[in-house]
Design goal:
The chain has 110 residues and is an alpha/beta fold. The chain has helices at 31-41, 61-76, 88-96, and strands at 2-3, 7-13, 17-26, 48-59, 80-84, 104-106. The protein is built from three helices and six strands, in the order βββαβαβαβ. β3, α1 (31-41) and β4 form a beta-alpha-beta unit.
């Protein structure tokens, strides 16, 4: 688990899938520590990682950069990365920066 005053990230693991649940705001105040957490934990995880954005209220450009970092790490380790339940606004932001071309995004919320 990763937590600071703006965001909490919990991980649920089973045999083949790990789910990152992001709750709160992934912004400039949380991304440095989030990146350190991701760099440490991803090599210990399974074949597929799902980022659950259902409870992510806001993501800044720094947060987007952190997700690009996550993509890079997963690609280097041959781990499949997908995302579920971003809000319509967050998904629109992802499309603007072409993140949707690097991560499969499912179940966009309205």
């Amino acid at each position: 688990m990763f937590q600071n005053e703006n965001v909490t990230v919990t991980i649920q693991k089973d045999k083949c899938v790990s789910v990152f649940k992001i709750k709160g705001e992934l912004d400039a105040f949380s991304t440095y520590d989030f990146n350190k957490f991701v760099e440490k934990i991803i090599p210990e995880l399974n074949d597929t990682i799902i980022i659950d954005m259902k409870e992510c209220k806001y993501i800044s450009s720094s947060g987007i950069s952190s997700l690009f970092n996550m993509c890079r790490i997963c690609n280097n380790l041959d781990i499949r990365l997908t995302m579920s339940y971003p809000s319509k606004e967050i998904y629109s932001f992802f499309k603007t920066v072409n993140l949707h071309k690097l991560i499969d995004i499912n179940n966009v919320m309205s």
